[in-house]
Amino acid sequence: MKAARFWRISIGFGTIMLSLLLTVACGSDNEPAGATPSPAATAPPAAKATPAATATRAPGPSGFAIRPVPRDKTAGLQELPQGLYVGEVDTGEIRQVDIPNPGQYAIGFMSWTSPGQMLVAIPPDFLYVVDIDQATLRQLSSGAPFDMWFTHSPSGKFVARPETWAGGSIIVWSLEEEREVLRTPATGSVGVGSLMWAPDEKHLSYRTMSQGGSGEGATVFIARLEQPITTVTADLGGDLVPMEWSPDSRSIVFSNTAGIFSLDAESGEETLLYSWPQPLDSVPSELSLSFDGRYAVVAARIQGRGNIASRIAVSLEDGRAIEITATEDVKWSPTEDVLLVVADWCKPSQKLLLVEPDGTTRATLTQGETVFGPHWSPDGTMIAFSGGAPAAEPGMADQGARIIRTDGSEVTFIPLFFETEDWSPDSKRIAYSVDLPRHQCAQVEEQTEIRPFP
Question: To 5 degrees, how large is the angle CA 432–CA 113–CA 50?
Answer without folding.
Answer: 100
